[in-house]
Amino acid sequence: MKKIVVTTDFSENSKKGILFAIQLASQTDCELIFYNVVSIYMPTIWDNVYYNEFQTGELERSQSFLDLFIKAILVKGKFEIQNYKCVCEVGISASNQIIEYSKNIHADYICVSNTGAGKLIQMFGTVASELIAFCPIPVIIVPKKYKTQPVSTLFFASDFKDFNYELKKIEKFNVDLKTKLSVFHYDYNWFLNSNKSKFEKICNENKAEVIDFHLRKLDSGSPLILHIEKDILKTKPSMVVVFTKQNRNWFNRLFLSSLSAELAFDIKTPMLVFKKQK
């Protein structure tokens, strides 16, 4: 059974991540852990005894609120899920606390809502962007404009490096969902026989009814992200799968290129972000 840590700060925006996780739970065998980080700072005039009492009280209040918050969402949506729990913990850094907790319970995925602001880094939000940059556990990013619907199609833009490794990661996620996977490969030198042969070899080795492959010619006048965005908008997948090098500079170069003032991805599409092998 998969474990999915679903983060919330009790905001309206964080409900989107909760709704997406509930949708996954309706399609797969998984346990949902709704998780809230309580940030409590200790003023210099407080002693340890008073701080510990205050912390205990705040944690109990947050736990009660989280229980009611999740229950209200389940009742309003008439969702019937049994395998879930609510957890509150104290932490200074939300992203670090989420990562450590998820590692300790051997979570398979972390689900987090983004902020939906104008630029991509703002779209992801501080916590989400830090999880993408540093978390060894796959992260699901759910946009604020997400509307509940069954997960039926996955979009994967692959550079074909470590393809077999990456495909296995996707198949593990997809084992219960059994969705259709569309693999897109973008290449400036698509016309070279060596590149065509490599593409055909990978296609032939991974033929399946639920997998299709698409080769796209890159236009040197447009950034890669624009090509990907066009195909996402055209195919309207349920989720976009991304493998990323966990390096902030790389992240900024790829996602903030010439579209720094615009959204690079269709903000209605949840993203599943894996750590690249190399």
CATH architecture classification name of the largest domain: 3-Layer(aba) Sandwich
Please tally the β strands and state the result: 10
- Counting DSSP H or I runs of 4 or more residues, the number of helices is 8
Please summarize the sheet with the most strands: 10 strands, mixed
Q: Remind me, CATH topology of the largest domain?
A: Rossmann fold
Shape: elongated
Low-confidence stretches: 116-124, 253-266
Lateral strand order in the biggest sheet: 3-2-1-4-5-10-9-6-7-8
Q: Provide the residue-averaged pLDDT.
A: 82
Spell the H/E element sequence. EHEHEHEHEEHEHEHEHE
Percent in helix: 40-55%
Assembly type: single chain
Which structural class do the helices and strands define?
alpha/beta
Per DSSP, what share of the residues sits in E-state strands of 2 or more residues? 15-25%
- Superfamily (CATH H level) name of the largest domain: HUPs
Radius of gyration: 20 Å
| CATH class term of the largest domain | Alpha Beta
Structure write-up:
With 278 residues, the protein is α/β, with parallel strands linked by helices. The chain folds into two domains: 2-142, HUPs (Rossmann fold), CATH 3.40.50.620; 153-275, 3-Layer(aba) Sandwich (Rossmann fold). It has helices spanning 14-27, 48-77, 94-104, 120-134, 163-174, 193-205, 224-235, 248-255, and strands spanning 2-7, 30-38, 84-90, 109-113, 139-142, 153-157, 180-187, 211-217, 239-244, 271-275. A ten-stranded mixed beta sheet has the order 3-2-1-4-5-10-9-6-7-8, sandwiched between helices. α3 crosses α4. The chain is elongated and about 70 Å long.
